[in-house]
Amino acid sequence: MAGAEWESLEQCLEKNLPLADLREVKRILYGKETRELHLPSGAFEAASKGDFELRGYGFEAAEEQQRRPRIVRVGLVQNRTPLPTDTPVVKQVTALHRRIEAITEVAATCGVNIICFQEAWTMPFAFCTRERLPWTEFAESAEDGPTIRFCQELARKHDMVVVSPILERDAEHGDVLWNTAVVISNSGAVLGKTRKNHIPRVGDFNESTYYMEGNLGHPVFQTQFGRIAVNICYGRHHPLNWLMYSINGAEIIFNPSATVGALSESLWPIEARNAAIANHCFTCAINRVGEERFPNEFTSGDGKKAHRDFGYFYGSSYVAAPDGSRTPGLSRNRDGLLVTELDLNLCRQVNDIWGFKMTGRYKMYARELTEAVKPNYSPNIMKE
Ligand SMILES: NC(=O)NCCC(=O)O
Predict the structure, then answer these.
(1) How many distinct structural domains can be found in the chain?
(2) pTM of the full predicted structure?
(3) What is the pLDDT of residues 221-257, one digit of tens each?
(4) Which of 40, 102, 108, 134 is least surrounded by Cβ atoms within 10 Å, i.e. has the fewest?
C-alpha cells in the first residue's frame, strides 16, 4: 500500500490521462465540476512558507427569486503531529496549537467562516496502544480546557466558528473520557459539544478502551453561518448517524477523522459523499496525515505482528455537496487547508428535485426498527 510517496488519486489521473478522458473520468467520479476559488496570493505565500497545501473550490447553486444566496466558506484542516509521540505531553499540545494557529491565520485571510480540525487534533492517535499514561493526559475539559480557551481566542480574533475535536475529560461526571467535538461560535462563546456515537473495535482502532459511545444524541448547532453538526470519524460508516443530524436540520455535517489506508481508503471517497446525497446537505471529510510511531509495541488481535505504528494516515480531505459533486481531495502526504465556498440554498434546491426527505419512509422504518431491536424479534423472511 502506498505511503507518503503517492500524492493523490487526482494527481495520478491528471498525470496519466489524456485531457478528453480526464474530463469524462472526472465528470463520473466527481460530479459537476467545482469552480476554483481565487484566494489571496498572500495566503499562498504564507502556506508555502508554513509548508502546507492550500486549495480553494466553490460549489454553485441556482439563483432564487425569494431567497438571497447563503454563501459560507468552510475550512478543513489536515495535519501531521509535528513532534515525536514520546515528547512531553504539554510540548506536543503546544506545538499543535502553534501549527493550527498558523493555518487558521491563513484561513482567515481566505475568508473562512467555519473551520474544522481533525479528530482528536491535540494529540497523536494513541488509542491503538491501549496504554493509559501518558495518553490520557491529553484529555481536557470541553468547557474551559486550554484548547477550548485557545479556540475561543481564534474564534474571536477571526470572527470564525471553530469546530474543535478533542479528547474530553468530564471532571464533573466521574472524570470520564469522551471523544468529543466542541463547537465555538464566532463570538467566542462555546455553543456546545457533541460526542462520538460509534466507537470502533476494528484492527488497531481499539478506542473503546478509553471512552464509550457518546450519550448526547445528534445535536445541531445554529451558527451565524448556517446549521452545522459533527459526525466523528467511525460514525461515517453508519448511515442512520448522518440521517439523524440531517433530521435535526444540519446543513453542513463535518466528519473529523483519523483513519489509515489499509483499512478504509477505498471507502473514504464514497461515504461522506453518499451522506451528502442521501441527506441533501454538505459534508466535510477530514483525515490526518502521516505516520505516528509509539514508544511501545502493541498488537490488536488481528494476526499482525506486534508493531509500533498504525500505518499511513492518508489525508485526502474533501467536501461533498447535496447534488453529489465533490471537491478534489487535499493530498495524501501534506498538511493542508481546504477552503470551500458553499451556497446553502443548494440543500433545498436538491431536496426539491430528488425529494428524499419527502419520500423517506421514516415512520415505517421507526416502527420496524422498534420491533427489530426487541430481544424476541424474528426477522421478516418469507420461506417456501
Ligand atoms: N478514528 C476512527 O474512528 N477510526 C476508525 C477507522 C475508520 O473508521 O476508518
Answers:
(1) 1
(2) 0.98
(3) 999 999 999 999 999 999 999 999 999 999 999 999 9
(4) 40
Residue 357 phi/psi, 5-degree rounding, is: -70, -35
1 domain-assigned: no
Q: Which domain holds residue 254?
A: 9-372
Does position 143 have pLDDT exceeding 90, yes or no?
yes
The residues, ordered by sequence, that sit 6+ positions from 372 with a Cβ below 8 Å of its Cβ are 379
The CB of 238 under 6 Å from ligand 1? The reply is no
Average pLDDT, the chain: 97
Nearest to 166 by CA among 187, 186, 185, 149: 149
DSSP string, 191-231: EEEEE-S---EETTEEGGGT----SS----EEETTEEEEE-
Three-class SS of residue 370?
helix
Q: Residue 200: CB within 6 Å of ligand 1?
A: yes
In a domain, 380, yes or no: no
Q: Is 263 in the pocket of ligand 1 (CB under 6 A)?
A: yes
Catalytic residue among 110, 128, 151, 233: 233
383 within some domain: no
Asked, for residue 382, whether it belongs to a domain, the answer is no
- Whether the complex's predicted ipTM is more than 0.95 is answered with yes
In whole angstroms, give the CA distance from residue 300 to residue 51. 34
